[in-house]
Write a structure and sequence with these properties.
Order of helices and strands: EEEEEEEEEEEEEEEEEEEEH
Radius of gyration: 15 Å
CATH class: Mainly Beta
Number of domains: 1
CATH topology: UDP N-Acetylglucosamine Acyltransferase, domain 1
Largest sheet: 12 strands, parallel
CATH architecture: 3 Solenoid
Helix content: 10-25%
Strand content: 35-45%
Distance between the termini: 30 Å
Number of helices: 1
Number of strands: 20
CATH superfamily: Hexapeptide repeat proteins
């Protein structure tokens, strides 16, 4: 069973059709939207501020989502894909964005709709990753605009994790093109 804990009188609110892995930890003022998936070893700690996770968003294995005491909480929009072992801290990730594996996004940074943060990138506090842009590096900088291949990979990834989360939650396999 996932570890779902209240903090300061606030209990996480999780949509009934969201998938939460057995060893995920969700604490405090956290809201998880419909069809979202929180994978193995993730920690969402909304203790000193809030965390919002949108519909059909997937937060993959080992990712930590946290907040700052002051200012805004952490907001993650709908249809967002966050890769394994990312660090998401007191920032905003808008609808349809993608965050690569082991990326780190810091306080008051914004990843705009349809933007991509490359694997391993470090988005410094208060940076804005523009819509359709790909940022890479440590510290991250604009690298290029997203390609059609990037968009296809992202859209298929969101759908894959939505279906996989549904399968884990219900035990009913979905049709896979390779079956």
């Amino acid at each position: 069973m996932p570890l779902i804990l209240p903090f300061a009188g606030k209990l996480p609110q999780i949509a009934p059709d969201a998938f939460i892995a057995d060893n995920a930890t969700i604490i405090g003022d956290v809201v998880i939207g419909a069809g979202a998936s929180i994978w193995f070893g993730c920690v969402l700690r909304g203790d000193t501020n809030y965390i919002r996770v949108g519909a059909r968003t997937n937060i993959q294995d080992g990712t930590v989502v946290h907040v700052a005491r002051e200012g805004r909480g952490t907001e993650i929009g709908d249809n967002v894909m966050i890769g394994h072992m990312a660090m998401i801290h007191a920032c905003t990730i808008k609808d349809g964005a993608m965050v690569g594996m082991t990326a780190c996004i810091m306080d008051d940074a914004v990843v705009e709709t349809g933007a991509m943060v490359a694997a391993g990138a470090f988005i410094s506090p208060k940076k804005i990753v523009g819509s359709g842009e790909v940022w890479a590096g440590r510290p991250a900088k604009f690298w290029r605009m997203m390609s059609e291949q990037d968009r296809h990979y992202f859209l298929s990834g969101v759908e894959h994790y939505y279906e996989l989360g549904r399968e884990y939650r219900t035990g009913i396999p979905h049709s896979r093109p390779w079956d």
